[in-house]
Amino acid sequence: MTAYPPEYPTVKMFINGAWIAEGEAGSMDVINPATGQVIGQCPKASPAQLDAALAAAEDGFARWSRTPGAERYAVLRRAAELLRQRAPDIATIVTAEMGKPRAQAIGEITGSTDMIDFLGEEAKRRGGRMIPARGPQMIAQMVTHEPVGPSVLLTPWNFPVNLPAKKIAGALAAGCSAILKPAENTPASAQLLVECFVDAGLPAGVLNLVYGDPGAVSEHLITSPVTRKVSFTGSTAVGKQLGALAANHMKRFTPELGGHAPVIVSKHADLDRAVAMCAATKFRNAGQVCVSPTRFLVAREIYDRFVAEFADRASKIKVGDPGADDSVDMGPLAHGRRIAAMEAVVADSGGNRGEVVSGGKAIVGSGFFFEPTVIANPAPDSRFMTEEPFGPIAGIVPFDAMEDAVRIANSLRYGLAAYAFSGNLDEAYYLGRALRAGMVGINQLIISSPETPFGGVGDSGFGSEGGEEGYLAFTDTKLVMLAKAGG
Ligand code: NAD
């Protein structure tokens, strides 16, 4: 068993069953965004270390892909159990690395254990299918799901345990080996997750962990002939670059990208419930969530009340260092550069282009804090209405006809999550069908669970992870036609 560290650990890579603290390409500072202090060093892999991880994944795939599904399940099951036991200590590291309040970090980790369980079980139960033959000579037409091969998993910092867990579990359950390259600012969260799989008995080479400059590492791994699949979560701009690279090398690619989720609030909605849910969910993880509800389109009849109550709730959110105070509702943004991004959005919402009714400023101090911000009636062509803010900023726009609300909701190239609140069944059904998104929540804002697919359309990406799709994403479909040998 790996000795379990409650304090910030020495960050190590994991290559072919060995923990390696030395990055041959140097190291990067890891910064606590609530304090601005350096809390550790993240090693940077050299090309030779990346090649060692690729060789290990190739060898690991040869062995793991032949391991029966029930045995793969058993390893994943144990890993989930270890993660459950270690959640309180891992949550401390998640909070220190990216600033999420402790309760949200615990929720993220326990949600990850359920995801690993579900995908592990798929290894036991997901068979193929038999297709009836057309002629008497044919004995069987079998369709099977074969593991696609060594997979490269590229994950961001906003859910530094859950996103790696979902990709690792899908890959390993399907019989693939993997190389995980997590975000450079949350390496220890990923390391502690990987330790759970190692301590659960995963054979050497099957799961490898590397860090480094994201562009250079991704290019090295994606273009290697060993790699057969790439799974990326991050921004649309980077997703397009990596997708082009994957396409040039004919690699399977699943991009989970940005979003700018609309929320339509009808005059038939339960207003009190809708505004309470919307204000609470918007500022979860400081709004740094790809499915965060962000563009609120509210029926004119209830618009003034919605704005006043939303702004009141936003102004009461307790912002602070979640590592020092468990009662904080919202922590810092993950990077200093995110403050400048928020300021640019607010700057383009002043004057006659909108009204900042709550927040709007960075909070001066040592960490990267920004006030929970509400913009009333932002202009249609403003930065807020057209670019994903990925932070604690909500905008509220009135509408008269429901068709106008749907048109505004569907007007961007993003299509990850969309939401609506209505107590009218016909309207709720219409909205569920009319909103263009990979996931639609009606009268609720939670659209992710271990059993259900997660993915977007348009500039939000394609394909799904989570649910049975999360297993199938790491497989190739194969047909075996078996005919009689003679007369
Ligand atoms: P960023 O694009 O600099 O970094 C985001 C993530 O992408 C990091 O984890 C980073 O390691 C990775 N990355 C960056 N350049 C890369 C490259 N060339 N190749 C491979 N990976 C690369 O953005 P940021 O300022 O850290 O975060 C804000 C933006 O990131 C937002 O626009 C948001 O859309 C996006 N983001 C999306 C998600 C999501 O869940 N879809 C999560 C985090 C960030």
Molecular structure report:
With 487 residues, the chain is an alpha/beta fold. It folds into two domains: 13-257 and 461-479, Aldehyde Dehydrogenase, Chain A, domain 1, CATH 3.40.605.10; 261-459, Aldehyde Dehydrogenase, Chain A, domain 2, CATH 3.40.309. The chain contains 14 helices and 21 strands. The protein has helices at 47-64, 69-98, 102-125, 162-174, 187-199, 214-223, 236-248, 271-282, 300-315, 337-347, 383-386, 402-409, 425-434, 467-472, and strands spanning 13-15, 18-20, 27-31, 38-43, 129-130, 138-147, 151-154, 178-181, 207-209, 229-233, 252-256, 261-265, 293-299, 355-358, 362-363, 369-370, 373-376, 393-399, 417-421, 439-442, 475-483. A seven-stranded mixed beta sheet has the order 14-17-18-13-12-19-20, sandwiched between helices. α2 runs antiparallel to α3 (102-125), α2 packs antiparallel against α4 (162-174) and α8 (271-282) packs across α9. The longest helix has 30 residues, at 69-98. The radius of gyration is 23 Å and the shape is globular. The chain starts with 12 loop residues before the first strand and ends with a strand. Residues 1-5 have low confidence and may be disordered. Nicotinamide-adenine-dinucleotide is lined by residues 154, 156-158, 183-184, 214-215, 218, 233-235, 238, 241-242, 256-258, 290, 335, 337-338, 388, 390.
Short overview:
With 487 residues, this protein is α/β, with parallel strands linked by helices. It has 14 helices and 21 strands. The protein is globular and about 75 Å long.
